[in-house]
Model the fold of this input.
Amino acid sequence: MSIERIDYELCTGCGICVKSCPMDVLRIDNESNKAIIQYPEDCMLCKWCTFDCPENAIYISPEKESPLLTSWG
Amino acid sequence: MSVEKVIETDVLVIGGGLAGCFAAVKAREQGVDVTLVSKGNIGRSGQTPWADGTFVFNPEWGQELEELTERAHTRGEYINNRDWTERVIKDSYARFQDLVSWGIPFLKDDKGDFSRMGIGGQARPGVAWTLHANPGSWVQPLRSQPQKMGVHILERIMIADLIKQDGKVVGAIGIPTDSWDLYIFKAKATVICTGAGGFKPVGSWPIGDLTADGHVMAYKAGAEITGKEFEDFHGGMATRTGGLYFPNIPFPPLYNAEGDEVPERGFNLSGDLEAHAGRAPLRRGEEEFFNNSALGMSVHTAEGIWPVDENCASSVPGLYAAGDSCGTMMTGAFYSIGGTGTANASVTGARAGEAAAQYAKQAEKATIDDQELARLKEFILAPTERKGGFSPNWVTQLLRNTMMPYFISRIKHGERLKAALTLVEFMRDHLSTKLFARDPHELRLAHETKNMIINAEMKLRASLYRTESRGTHYREDYPRRDDPNWLAWVLLKEEDGRMKVFKKPIPKEWWPDLKKPYEERYPPRFTFSV
Done:
């Protein structure tokens, strides 16, 4: 749903996607030094990450799920 | 572990979109120290990334000022602020030239002239001209121009509150999205360029970071807020988000469930009326169509901090506003001239930046009271002190579900607005106060949620107060325009801890001819029958 995965064979850890995301969904992982989808639930499908990624490493699903509203949370 | 950083500057610009970049650049041109802080990333936050054009007025191109202003008066249903309509139109060419000099590649035709398009993107002379440059091409110029000029730029820091001392705004406190550090900005003048306010419409218009932060902070600091009763008219498809679209793609016509074409005129309330009558689902071509894609937003240039002078000063000394944060009301109750969202951002950004710099030059450095600072820090960090409570995402979802139905936000009615307001007041008093954040990312979400709840309260109260319909504010219980009672602006102001709502009549010289029949005074009114 929304941003789905990063192709780690293509990702170079350049960090451009982190600077492209207005919602702070993506971060650079300290160990792998590559991009990770840290907060997928905040993805709003703007697609700037995939537009700006020089390696075409980001896959975005066109579907966006909205979780059920629970009585509290 | 966490560090408190104090940054002193002359002019603090909050927001790094088009308005913020103009404010920062123009302030810096005055020779003062300028700091620009963005919650996200310059050129990739707010609505600026989707700017694909700007309105430009140039009499040499055959445009006539009066034709344009007339359009704003009638389509804006007479409550456009005519002074601002004229200012933005007249300043637009100079701002366009700025953008060109910054390196934004506006499209050119075969002869090498700037390609000018009329309203609706038709490549023939129209009343208004917009000049286009592909989204994505604005980012580098907007990032590099303030940088080149020595503006201090900080990104991924959310300004969570303003600091007020002796009745003046003297700075702000920021929380970074990826650390527990705290930024205390001490500024002689502050320009709010934080854009519009929405409720994070899911998978719809990509405005998830536009949570009315600036409107709410300014309101809490004592400024007046206007335009909250008007609604952004964009619809959307179930299968397509607002992400990355290009201009001039014609929309297929709208059909209801009975197979009849739905006549549309400007504002897409036609779809809501079909749904209200029980004739949904609606389709455009093969795709299902919905409204409320930009849930929570008002019409461009309508909502925002009320400017008290021609240079975007708010009613609070030291505080200025620009772009969608500033309620110039230049196009009125409906978005009457295409491309003016961008032009308004540029024009007000430039004016506010320059004025803020001039103010800063003569302002004394304020010493910030320690107790006030401690109070603000406690408020800002409160969600991190809790071990439990409500998660920002749950409260946001609840708020969105409350405001999303067409019969709350678009086909309004006093009883339903009051019902929604009862729930929103509960959210404000009982949920907002118990938000908890487990990390800095969630702390940003907590503050966004607090702001969205106040924005909802603003929208509901303003909608309840305006007991008529006008432009993009439609009340089922008051379906007609009520001249001259409501030839006025609705303003909100905090007084004794409560949200006061009042109106400011427009100057009588701006009234339409009341002797003209209603249908002639309001030709394009979207509900057709009233």
Q: What stands out?
A: Helices of chain A lie at 16-20, 48-52. The first helix of chain A runs from residue 16 to 20.
